[in-house]
Amino acid sequence: MSLKSKLGIDVDKLIFGISQISQMTAISPRQLRYWEKRGYISSLPEKDGVSRQYNLKTAIRIIGIKQFLDEGYTLAAAVEKVALFAKRNSLLRHFVAQRFEGTTEVDGEMVLDFGDLNEQQRIYGLMQDGHAEFKIADK
């Protein structure tokens, strides 16, 4: 099944060749093949006459690994940190997707509506002086 963004972009069709990934990240194709051999990343099924290709999800993973390597982590630690980040990101996306009911205005401020807290109150998210805060308001 293909994932489509709200803009109608089929992200499954965003494919990058190994040379493109190498140029974008300054990671050599040899290193990318090594990471693949170790199971840290995976390329798309190979087609005759076509070099290795990676989907958007793998490209983001590669960029994340590179970021942690640049911060001084070992390759194994960088891969673990990227996996943990991906798990947290997935949990956050699912949580927000289930609770988020849109935006609205409360007391003259634009807020995120997270729905009913109980029968008498709703919970909202807002930015206050650069900090994320929750606000509980009566219905």
Annotate the secondary structure layout.
Blueprint: E1 15-17, H1 18-25, H2 29-37, E2 53-55, H3 56-70, H4 75-99, E3 103-106, E4 109-116, E5 121-128, E6 131-138
Antiparallel strand pairs: 1-2, 3-4, 4-5, 5-6
Question: What report would you give on this structure?
Answer:
The chain starts with 14 loop residues before the first strand and ends with a strand. β5 (121-128) and β6 (131-138) form a beta hairpin. The chain has helices at residues 18-25, 29-37, 56-70, 75-99; strands at residues 15-17, 53-55, 103-106, 109-116, 121-128, 131-138. The protein has 139 residues and is α+β, with helices and mostly antiparallel strands. It has a 4-stranded antiparallel sheet, with no helix packed on it. Helix content is 41%, strand content 24%. The chain has 4 helices and 6 strands; from the N terminus they run βααβααββββ. The mean pLDDT is 91. α3 packs across α4.
Tags for this model:
single chain; 6 strands; 139 residues; alpha+beta; 4-stranded antiparallel beta sheet; 4 helices
